[in-house]
Amino acid sequence: MKLVKDVMVRDIITITPFATIREALSLMKRHSVKSLVVEKQSEHDAWGLITYTNVLKTVIAEDGDIDLLNVYDACAKPVISVGENLNVRHAASLMSKYRVKRLLVLADNDLKGFVVMDDIMAALLDSID
């Protein structure tokens, strides 16, 4: 039985919600990632997530300028999160039910990583003979 902590990404790239969409895209390009975790603004705030899909929807819907729109205009916040000791089967079920490809992994609202559907599929494929 694989747990979320066995497949989660621990190398997390974060961004402030006040950064521009251009800055977010630049950071994604520099690190070759498709999503960034949006930082909390206080201890009791929620984490967010910005993805290519969020950016495209926002820029197209708002007919927006990537230099004028901020990350908070496009990000999902709060995002669905799980604990690191959850069975990946349950994480995959949440992803399927809510039609998301990424879940944040939190412990007492502290960011530990995130889990991506592709990583769950890779773990499943590894278990097949």
UniProtKB/TrEMBL annotation:
<feature type="domain" description="CBS">
    <location>
        <begin position="8"/>
        <end position="68"/>
    </location>
</feature>
<dbReference type="InterPro" id="IPR046342">
    <property type="entry name" value="CBS_dom_sf"/>
</dbReference>
<keyword id="KW-0129">CBS domain</keyword>
<dbReference type="InterPro" id="IPR051257">
    <property type="entry name" value="Diverse_CBS-Domain"/>
</dbReference>
<dbReference type="InterPro" id="IPR000644">
    <property type="entry name" value="CBS_dom"/>
</dbReference>
<dbReference type="Pfam" id="PF00571">
    <property type="entry name" value="CBS"/>
</dbReference>
<feature type="domain" description="CBS">
    <location>
        <begin position="75"/>
        <end position="129"/>
    </location>
</feature>
<protein>
    <submittedName>
        <fullName>Signal-transduction protein</fullName>
    </submittedName>
</protein>
